[in-house]
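Hey Z.,

So I finally got round to the EPZ thing we talked about over coffee. Here's the setup:
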Amino acid sequence: MDRFLVEGGRKLKGTVKAGGSKNACLPILVASLLTDEPFILHRVPNLRDVRTTLKILTALGKKVTFQNGTVTITADGALKNTLPYELVKQMRASFWVAGPLLARFKEAVIPLPGGCALGARPVDIHLKGFERLGASCQTERGNVILSAEKLEPAKITLRFPSVGATQNLMMCAALIEGETVLENVAKEPEIDDVTAVLNKMGAEIFADDKGRLVIRGQKTLRGAEHTVVADRIESGSYMIAAAAARGDVRVEDCVPEHNSILLECLQEAGVPLEIGPNYVHVKPYDGPLKPTRIKTAPYPGFATDLQPQWMALMSLADGAAEIDETIFENRFMAAPELVRMGADIVTEKTLARINGVKELSGAHVMASDLRGGFALLIAGLCAKGTTEIERVYHIDRGYEDPEGKLNALGANVTRYNPDKDDF
Ligand code: EPZ
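And the result:
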């Protein structure tokens, strides 16, 4: 398995471009199941999770090509409505196929996604929503069997604004004639991108004056062509890396307002920024990095997907900072690895207290999830000496060519595989 060797202490200077959003393109690719017409998606990042999703679409009977950031999906005979466990176990987001398959076949057999490193991550909100739309949901031998005589539009209130449940239910309702109303939905920018694609396909989806999502579903949906929105988590990750390394870095092709809370927190921490229409310039600074408390929350709150990266940054702050992780029950896995690099972090349930230190030291560490893995990369860039990061496949799930993008800024990150390379 690949590892990274990161040489610490190098100045970061230059421009890094954000790619298309992983968390928008995954559900959008799945939305292609709602039609037999050709479906074209541009600015698709070449990530492990994207390749897994394309395998899922192929396993369900679609013909898929992926070249230079463009995915083309066409029908290739009848669609299947059961998904092999092999693929679901690799990626929780494969459960998003439930909505489209239920809508098209009125019957689908989908392996339940197990928990993951972040916690249990049940799908009860998805299933309750499908039941409100008229489906029965039985769980049997690790699969959920969804079936419905007829699906009916409904008014559904989500007990929590789950991103995945919002997307799954939107896609299902888009093929149910009539008006479905979803209340207490997630409002992440990725939801807007899925909405834009479903509307291009012929659904009529809009937010009403109470912030509810109204879906006027259709009997059939057309194909569509779309360009994925910029990845706010990738761009935010590079902004934090630049701030930690006190570099001079311009993150381009991004949507600054999708990161407004992060930008606020960076400025509060004393990091000078120049914010443009589609770029954020993180400027060098000599002053102290001020400890800045964050509390993760559904959008537009501080993104849980940027929390581990913020923890790495606060490891070098001039004082004590706190993190309150309200979304996942176990999202501090980077903490013990950062402590091995000299950070002073104490975690207690969903609270982390970080007492900033003057310097981190390079160490041999292990990534356990994609965002925590990037946090270790950030720490390695700032540490004295070399850091070796194992299980880089976690980082590859959500970041395209991270070593290439960082080395273009002056970093020295080497990818190697001890089983293959005689490094
Ligand atoms: C999406 O996951 C993202 N993944 C996650 O990004 C992100 O962290 C998360 O939203 C929150 O923003 C994709 O978009 C592919 P949720 P999702 O449903 O949809 C609980 C990354 O780093 N919950 O909003 O699975 C759940 O356990 C990944 O790119 C239920 O209890 O997140 C969690 O505690 C990691 N029942 C909380 O809600 C349900 O039915 C948020 O989950 C669904 C969720």
